Each structure stands twice: as C-alpha cells, then as structure tokens.
C-alpha cells in the first residue's frame, strides 16, 4: 500500500451472534457482511475464498473444464447418514466425477427463509466445509439471499462445481459398444428410502442411512485401472438406476440387458419398496455411480472399484446389446424378462 | 457407432405442452426430461449445452479462471425494464465483468413452485436466452428442482458464471492508491426504486425502468483504454454505491471522498427517495459499475466509458484519500461533509 494510504488495512475480526436469520442478512449491507465474515467465511476458510469479491479467481493450465450446477431442496434438511450440507457438496463432486473431471473448486449459493435458526445454518455450513475438506476441494465463494418467512422452506442450496477433465478419457453415449458391461458401484436405493423414512409419514422403520459421499475416489481408481476402457458414467440420483440407463439406451440407440439378481440391494430397501409398491431401480442414490466399460476391461474395472472403501459391493449388472433398441430389459434369475421404464411421476419428492 | 449398436441414435423431438409445472417435472424421470428437452434446451440451444449430462465441458488455454454465483429471488418476477430472467444473466455477467473477466459460460439452476404457469417459466427462459445471446455467451446447462406449492415463491434462479481473466489486469483493493479517482458508469437507484414501485404497495408512480444490462461492453472499453490504470471495480447492487465504497474503504484502509453533486441521479429516483426517507446511495443498481482508476488515466477512462451505449452519463464521483481511514465522506456543493455508512437493515427486500 504505497502512495500514502494508511498502512494497516487488516479488518477487525467480526463475530456473528444473531440467533436467527433475518431479512437484513440478505440485504447486502452491514448485516450481510456480518453473516458472511462472521459465520460463513471462517467455516469455509481457504486460500481461494474471497468472501466479498464478485468472483473467485484461480489459474488453470490449458485443459478441458467441466462445470456443473445443482439445486438442493431436500426435506428434511437432516437425515440418517447426512444432511443437505453434505449432500450439496457430494452431489456436485459426483457430477464432476462421472464427467471424468477432477474437482477443482466449488461455489455455494444459499436461499434462506427469514427466521431460520442460525444453529441450523451453522450446522449445514459445517457439513459443507467438512465434505469439501474430505474431498480436498476449496469452497471458493457463493451468494446468500434471504426471503420472507413462508417464501421458501427453511433453506435451499445451489452448488456449482468446476473440474479439470482427465485428458485420457473420451466419455459419452456415442462411445458405447455392443458387448460392453455395466458396472454399478454398490447397493441402490439407500438415499431415497432413508429420506422417505426421515419424514416420519410412514409406519416404517429401518436401520438405513443415506449413501451420500463423494464417488471420486472410486471413479479415480476405475480410471487409473482402465483409462481406455471406460465409455460412459453417470450417478443415478433422481429417477434412479432405471432412468439413468434408459437415458443411456436412448442416447446411444442401444439396449441394456440388466441382470436384476446381480444388483446390490439391502434387504431394508427391498422390504420398504415392496410395502410401498416402488421399484428400487427408480429410487434415488447419492453415493453410487454407473459405468459402461469395455468387455475386455470389465473384470479389472470391477476389482479396481471394489478395492476402494465404499466400493466393496460393486457389481457387473448389465450388458450392452443392439436390441431392443433404446430400451432397458430386466432379466431375472429364472430367465424371465421385463421392460424397465424411466421413472414416471414423482413418488418421492424433494429427495435431494 | 461401430460395434453393432443400432445406427441412428437421434432422439425423437419432444414437445412440452403442460400448462403448469408439477412436482413430477422435478423428479428426474420422464416428466423432467420433457421439461428439459421440450422447453428449456430448445430455448437455450447452443453447442456447449448438454442438457442431460452431468456437466458441461469446454476447453481453455492456460489462464486465470473467474467463477461467480448469484441467487435471484426478486419480487415481482417482472418489472419495468426487465425481469428475473434478464437480471440473473446480466447480474452474473456483471460480477465477471467487474472481476476483469470476459464471460465464457453460464449455468442456470431453477427452483420452481409446483403450480407455476408454464407461460411464466417460458417467458423467463426466453429472457435468459435473449440476455445471454446479447452478450454472446452460451448457457451451458443447469438444474431444475420443483418444490410443493407454498414451499417457494413462484421461482428462484441461481446463476453461475465462468470467465477468463484479462491478464493485463491486477485488480483489488490492495492496488488502490491515494489520489486515484472513482468512476461511476451512470445514474444510480433506477433498479431498486423500479422494483419498489412494481410492488404497487406505495402511492407512488414514476416513469422509471430497471437498469438491468450487461456492463461488460463498458468495462471492456475501459480496460482497453487504460489497461494499467484500473485498480478496482465493483457493481453496486444490494447495498448500493455507499456499501460498495465502504467495503473498498475498509479493505484498502483508505478514505473515499464522494462528490455528491457529481453523482448521476434521475429526478424520479431522487423524488422517491425523499418521500420514502431513503438514501439513493443505498439503493440497488443492476446495470452500473464503479471503478477506481489512476489519477493520470481518469479523464481517458471517463471518455472511454462515455463512448459506449449506456455509459453516456458516466462521471468521476470520488477521490481516494488517506483520512479518515476506512470511511466514505460525502462532500456537497456547498462544501459541507457527511459520513456515508454502509446500508443497515433492509428497506427494500428481494430486490434481485
């Protein structure tokens, strides 16, 4: 600071002691600054974070950048195994991961209802910071708006992720070939059924937890093991495995034969789905991914994912065929078949 | 598509004919696909857009990347001179612009209330597409969630922007020097007062329009004219010019002397503020920016901005001083002075 402006620009440390979020915290003035500098910034502290700047800035080498955006409106905010704070970070990491992108930075934008307890907000900010730290990714900034009591349901979070694409990869439905195998990283339906149970509207109880987590460690192991063999990846969130594979079948113009008995599924999820008349293949997951791998690499791919914590139950669950085009066919142990459609309607709203 | 999978993967064209948004449109299944492919994707059509992929991917050379996130909860959705759709694109372009970053891509994430008329959504998507097209920027994707009727107020939008930083620049409060001049691009308060009037809660009428627009053309002209002379930029949105300059004063440890008579201000805004007891310096703007420029470059900077459409009323409105440190001092034509504080409280909630 040459040129005569005062020597010590260090701002005084601000503490946020308000018990509830009020409209003024979203107005952009003093109260906003106290919220951001007194609560959000200290929890997200890292080198990239510029809490009051208009943008976060970071260098990249020449590369392909992947960007992703996700809104989170899950209800309730907290549930067995996680909360909206973990979910919003992990979900964004996972969208990058299945795009073959190493996560580089995350931004978090909040819409808060006036009257929200600060303790609730703090707990979710802590959950975001912890999930980002686990993944070794910085939260680089964001935005905070407050709406009147009743104009939103407690808090919504929208997360934005930027990653650098692994240059070894060529992913996409157009690369899928007949004979390729479908790999699933673990048991399905845990997240969706956990949220359903957390709402307490059903006379059901089960020892079940959301599977929310970053799948990047599993994806990285897969890519390192068979960099040429991975054709397509997707995380089967809303709409479940059935919807993700139907989208693949349609986009690739192929058929997916799904070996239903090979699909990892906890008995609690199976039981809840039977009682509720739901298909586990339509239930949302938050910590699983699907990959299509070349037939020659399938066994190596499976071993690579199984060797990573969380991937122990990975399985080869399907095969790419030419017919029936643009369809997913379930095959049971007795040789029976059924057509598996995308999710229709919304049996489990606000799952993420 | 070698390997035997069917030859023509082209998906059938989908039309979205539902009159209202329902929960199923956010469930991730067939209805979500219809909404995205039948309504959103055709309006946002561009090469980068991958409407159903998990991430958008684009190449960059070695550079510094700027990322920004903004939530928009403006009420009402439409107002004189614009709507939430233009606001969310322009606001994000402007955060990049004042970071010295040429906008590269934008993502748009929607939270919709079940029951929202499709016509309302379509109008806002069209406004987004038009604003992005005007700026020559692609909307690369996003996310859509639907919450129950009553769980949000019609629609909220969160926008993310990625830009490439102009390598000639070194912007930041730490570069500000005593004697530097403060440039303001045009009349203040138009947006905030327009929104206030659009709510119809006041017995006031005025021929006023929001100033929502991209400031990038003005910023680019400024940077081209005096690349070495620009020290700091900010768009004075929530909290207005007073808050932005107080943040600068605090971060730089300097004083800003603000020549109040030099500040461009429409008589309608001045009148409304007098009646309502508001300070125009606290009112939000959506199409203006502030820049601190070196004294030697100030006149050239002013001419460059004035030469761009929308910048005709730009003015040099302040000077950087060393004392009183971390404060903004207003100076009137009669030589009187007053301390100008940041915004306190929220006189105009949900302005953007």
TrEMBL record, chains A, B:
Domain PurM-like C-terminal span(s) in chain numbering? 177-325
Pfam family for this entry, one: AIRS
Q: Where are the transmembrane segments?
A: none
Q: Which domain of life is it from?
A: Bacteria
Give every PurM-like N-terminal domain span: 54-165
Q: Which family does it belong to?
A: Belongs to the HypE family.
Gene3D superfamilies xrefs: PurM-like C-terminal domain, PurM-like, N-terminal domain
Gene Ontology biological process terms in this record: protein maturation
What's the encoding gene here? hypE
Entry-linked InterPro entries: HypE (IPR011854), PurM-like_C_dom (IPR010918), PurM-like_C_sf (IPR036676), PurM-like_N (IPR016188), PurM-like_N_sf (IPR036921)
UniProt-recorded name of the protein: Hydrogenase expression/formation protein HypE
What SUPFAM superfamilies does this protein map onto?
PurM C-terminal domain-like (SSF56042), PurM N-terminal domain-like (SSF55326)
Which species is this record about? Vulcanimicrobium alpinum
